Structures are given as C-alpha cells and as structure tokens.
Amino acid sequence: MLKPEVKAFHHADTGTFSYVVRDTGGRAAAVIDPVLDYDPAAARTSTESADRIAAFVRDNGLEVVWILETHAHADHLTAAPYLKECLGGTIGIGSGITRVQSTFRDVLNLGDALTIDGSQFDHLFGNDETFAIGAVEARAIPTPGHTSDSLTYLIGDAAFVGDSLFMPDAGTARCDFPGGDAHVLWRSTRRLFELPDETRLFICHDYGPGGREVRCETTVGAQKRRNIHVGGDRTEGEFVKTRTERDATLGMPRLILPAIQINIRAGRAPEPEGNGVSYLKIPLNQF
After folding, report:
1. Domain annotation covers residue 287
2. CA distance 56 to 209
3. Reported confidence tier of residue 286, pLDDT bands at 50, 70, 90
4. What pLDDT was estimated at residue 74?
5. Which band of pLDDT confidence, cut at 50, 70 and 90, is reported for residue 184?
6. Tens digit of each residue's pLDDT (9 = 90 or more) over 160-177
7. Residue 9: CB atoms within 10 Å
8. What is the CATH number of the domain that holds 229?
C-alpha cells in the first residue's frame, strides 16, 4: 500500500488539525478539513490559516485535486470554498450531509433558504466509494455516530478520521449533537479497528489532555490497545454509558451556531439581504 506524504496544520484557536496529503510520486494533493478564521465578537472572517495551506501547496508545486470534509464541523468554519478559489479542486463530503442539512434546516427554521440535497458541495461520497489522489488509491468509509455524515478518508496507508476518534488518551468525540448516536459510533470504531494495526490515523482535534503537547497522529493498533473509551476490553455498553454521562456535562462548542450554518452550505455564507449583508441566525434556548 502506498504511503502518501502528510503535512499537518494546527489551528490553535479551535484545536483543529487540517492536512495536505500528497502523492509522493507526483504533484497531486488533497486538502482535508481546512479552517476559516472567525472572530465571534465581530462576526468577521479572515484567511490567515487557509493562506498558510495555500502557500505550502504553491511552494511545493502541488496540484489540489480534492478538498475533503470529514463532516459538517460544529467547532470551526470551513475554508473549503476559499481554497478552491485559490487552488482549484473538488469539494467533497459524505452523502449523509443531506440528513444534517435536513436536521438543521428545522432547528434553525431556514425554510427554502437552504436546499437539503447536498448540491452546495461538488461531490457527495457514497459508502465506501473509491477515488484517487494521483497514484494513491483512496476510499470514503462511513463512520457516523458523532454526526450522521461523518466519514473517514483512507488514503493509501493513512486514515483521516475526523472527530470519530481522538488520540488514545482522549477517547472519542461526543455523540449528543442532533443525529449523533453512541451505539452507532461504537460500531464505526469497530470498523476502523478492522484496518491493519500499522495504518496511520490522523485526527481532527487534540486539546492536549493533562497538559501534554498536542498531537495529531496515532495508529489503529495504538487505538485498539489504549483508547480510553473504545480500546482494550471495553464493551459497547460501557462505552455508551461513559459517553452519555460525559456528554451530559459538556457545553455547546463556542462556534457551533456560525459553524453549522456556514458548513452545511459548503463554507458559503447565506445569501446577502437587501442591504448586501449576509446574516446568521441565533435560535434562543434551543441548545
């Protein structure tokens, strides 16, 4: 199995890792989970973080063929359309995004302002759909549970798991968002654990539990042995109990309201109103 080269970019404000994955034998590359900087106090976006990714791509003479979202994130805004404008590429996400759009169209009372067919994205990946980045074979593995649209991208020997798994000492992502389900996430982790132990796993978030340095890379074997939520001899019942109890103590992500409204539109703002300004909605007492 080919081993693509992976470059990680850490967005400290949201604890997010974005990636550039390249075919080491050629120029083809993919960008995964890019972040658009956002100041919630001013409701202002900027592109400093995305520009670092663009500079890396240009400096290395790469050709972006895919811009991949592991799911519609609730903790950061995506920079996918900005990078497409800068670098080209096809924006892809799992076909489960239509369920997420349907859910949040109701939660946010968006009505006809949001179509729920996924057409905002360039490509919707079906379950286990195969694609390529240059000579590197890739597959979109559905791993729902955190959200209903969560995907893992297996690219050569590297799997990009989004929020399904964190580093082994941090466990898994929460399952209490609309469309989340701890039982489903357990089954998704079992599917990931069927991959070879040496498969590299690249996570989307790390917050340095216990004060350790943040990290982004682990392996299937390490997760199977040491993940504090789903590794070792833990059972599905134990995981669901632990996950449910922990989720009950968590507040909503700081950027969930702007992030969801932008990300279910593939990173684009709502249509401007009569004064030329785009507006986001804040539902009171709904979360």
Report:
1. no
2. 29
3. confident
4. 94
5. very high
6. 999 999 999 999 999 998
7. 20
8. 3.60.15.10
CA distance 81 to 132: 21
Average pLDDT, the chain: 96
Contact criterion met (CB below 8 Å) for 198 and 157 = yes
Q: How many domains does the chain have?
A: 1
Beta bridge pairs of residue 165 = 172
What's the pTM?
Answer: 0.95
In a domain, 261, yes or no: no
Query: Predicted confidence band at 285 (pLDDT cuts at 50, 70, 90)?
Result: confident
Q: Which domain holds residue 63?
A: 5-256
Asked, for residue 88, whether it belongs to a domain, the answer is yes
